Amino acid sequence: MTTASCEDNTAVRNWSELPDGPLHTILTCLRSFVDFISFSSVCRSWRAVASSLSPSDITSLFPPLLLIYKHQRSVSSRRLIDPASPSFSSSLDRICNNDTFTDFPFLITNHGRFLRLGEPQGYQYVILNPFTGEEIYSPLTPKNADFFSHLSFVDSALLLFTTDTVFHWRIGSPSWSCHSPRIQTTGKEIVAIVKGKVYIMDSAGSLFVLDLSPKLYLRQLAIDGIGVGRMGFHRFLVDCGGELLFLNFTPTGKIMGMRFEAFRLDLSANQARWVKMETLGNWAIFVGYWPELPGLALVNPERWGGRSNCVYFATNGNVDWPWAVIKLGEEIDTSDPESPLYIRNSRHMVQTSWVYPGF
């Protein structure tokens, strides 16, 4: 063997000098966020390639993580579980180990952020990133917004719904904007963003579109189709590949029997209508008990060991069953103690949210 060939072999073994092409190929073979974090931790060049992925690239490659937040008697704990690597569990308590995280209960928003009231109490909100410890303070809200019926975090902005007003604050802007729509909020509204449009469904199943610019404007969609007004115990709006899906966890004819039903919003006709879906195809949807956040949809879950045409339903921090995988339309007996969806009495202190870290 020549000296030159030895030098070539040595160069090949220098992993930090691999060109971007092979590194991107390696990235596409990864199965989970655990693998992704390990990849980005190898060296600076590998971290640079990992950082070049867009949010849409990441959400197409990996399933979301389950963020579990538990607060009891001024003692809080936060941890992450990866469905692609179930043996992985990571605590966030060291990152979140400060007074603001331990002294107050929180609401988990649909971007995995924590939200609490700031000072002066009732008129300002603090958004906390559990992955970095970063805090963002909102401007003071108008006094008539201190009692809200529903709150959502959408498109890097906060939406507060009172009984007769919607308040909107985009992160970085100096003040709140407001709008008085002709809608009576009840605290049961659900929200999702699809192709830049904010959709809101009220407790009666009426669907609205909220335009955020150039000013707040809420308009109701006249919808034909099946009776979606038959609301289930849990319901979600989901952006599924650029289409709006309504996911309903509804009773069956059997006592304590439940199943998931899905409906697609069809905008191709003159009048919008809901169309029932018999299958999710090669998609999986991630939702949970509380709070009722927009679901997350992922295509081809088999690439990381998941299952298509199924709903990954977070079971509010149950140690034995952190989530249940339920086929669309499958009947679940919630009265069975062996079922992951057996109704327990300890859920009110635990909040769960499927999240993509850093978003």
TrEMBL record:
<protein>
    <recommendedName>
        <fullName>F-box domain-containing protein</fullName>
    </recommendedName>
</protein>
<dbReference type="InterPro" id="IPR036047">
    <property type="entry name" value="F-box-like_dom_sf"/>
</dbReference>
<dbReference type="InterPro" id="IPR005174">
    <property type="entry name" value="KIB1-4_b-propeller"/>
</dbReference>
<feature type="domain" description="KIB1-4 beta-propeller">
    <location>
        <begin position="111"/>
        <end position="316"/>
    </location>
</feature>
<feature type="domain" description="F-box">
    <location>
        <begin position="15"/>
        <end position="52"/>
    </location>
</feature>
<dbReference type="InterPro" id="IPR001810">
    <property type="entry name" value="F-box_dom"/>
</dbReference>
<dbReference type="Pfam" id="PF03478">
    <property type="entry name" value="Beta-prop_KIB1-4"/>
</dbReference>
<dbReference type="Pfam" id="PF12937">
    <property type="entry name" value="F-box-like"/>
</dbReference>
